[in-house]
Amino acid sequence: MPASTPGATPGKREITLVSHSMLFYWWPIWLLGFTMALITWMEDHRLAIVPADTTAAVTSSDEKATTYAIAVKKGQETKSLSEAAEKSKTPGETTRIFPTRVSTKAWMGPLFCVVLLLTVVITNVPLRGLWSFLVLLMMLILALSISLIPNGWDDLLRTLGHLHIYINMAGYLFIATVVFVLWAVSVFIFDQRTYIVITPGQIKVCEHVGASIRTFDTVGMSFEKQRDDLFRHWLLGFFSGDLIVRTSGAERETLRLPNVLWIGWRLEEVQTLLAEKATVQGS
Question: Predicted confidence band at 2 (pLDDT cuts at 50, 70, 90)?
Answer without folding.
Answer: very low
